[in-house]
Amino acid sequence: MSGVTEFIFFHLNPAIKPEDPTNNEAGASLLELFKNTKHQNGYLGSSWGRSIEDENVVVWVIDWKDAQTSPTLTPSLTPYLAPSTPLTTFYATLSPPPPAHKTHDLSASPVTEIFTPWFPTSMSADETKKLHESLVAFRTELVENLEEGKRPRGLVMGQVERPGTRKHGDSASGEAFGMVVLAGWESVEAHMKIKGTEAFGRGIGPIREWMLKGDGGDVEKGEGGFGIMRHVRFQKAE
């Protein structure tokens, strides 16, 4: 089912435990917020999980019918945020799309890598075309050319569409556009091991030629600050 996917990154107040709704009232309330989003117009499905790198960082991924139907959910999260911490949200159309009448089931893998590289907007049209070709080639290297048993369980990607650009101090133009790659792995260790393979090296090399360092976010303004790669254990919001 084609549509748009929303990504929300936020720092959860450490006292809130949605994993233990029976004994944690605020956690139960947040869990209800996740679940009740299904009543919003255009909702298709969602998953949420904690970052393995920092368990206080929660990532909520929501599939919508289209960008026009997706509501603004970030104000609803305000009571659950750790004080004075940033929140980032963006949208992307992921490819390949899931089968008809299905959504992206991020809970199907024990660990999901979220890779969000940023690139300068000063890239020429030809360079941008080559970048997109390199990203497709990168996917092919991982899902077809890695040895069986080392391949990701699934891999989808897309360009960040909203916001289309963000400020980035390392970009010659001062702005950057982003991509997002989601890959399912058996474990963080399994993902780390493939980084030494020839297939990974061939795939990531051309991308790194244009990739900027970091996410370029201004944490004081509530932008970014979540890095360009995280591993998350997702569960369905249902």
- Overall outline: globular
The tally of domains stands at 1
Question: What is the averaged pLDDT score?
Answer: 90
Weakly predicted, low-confidence segments: none
- The CATH topology label is Alpha-Beta Plaits
Distance between the first and last residues' Cα: 19 Å
Task: Please describe the biggest sheet, giving its number of strands, its sense, and whether it closes into a barrel.
Answer: 8 strands, antiparallel, barrel
As an assembly, this protein is single chain
Task: Work out the number of β strands.
Answer: 10
Can you describe this structure?
Helix content is 23%, strand content 29%. It is of the alpha+beta class and 238 residues long. The protein has a single domain, classed as Alpha-Beta Plaits. It has an eight-stranded antiparallel barrel with strand order 1-3-2-10-5-9-7-4. A hairpin with a 7-residue loop joins strand 8 and strand 9. Helix 3 (125-145) runs antiparallel to helix 5. The protein is globular and about 50 Å long. The two termini are 19 Å apart. The relative contact order is 0.21. The model has no long low-confidence stretch (mean pLDDT 90).
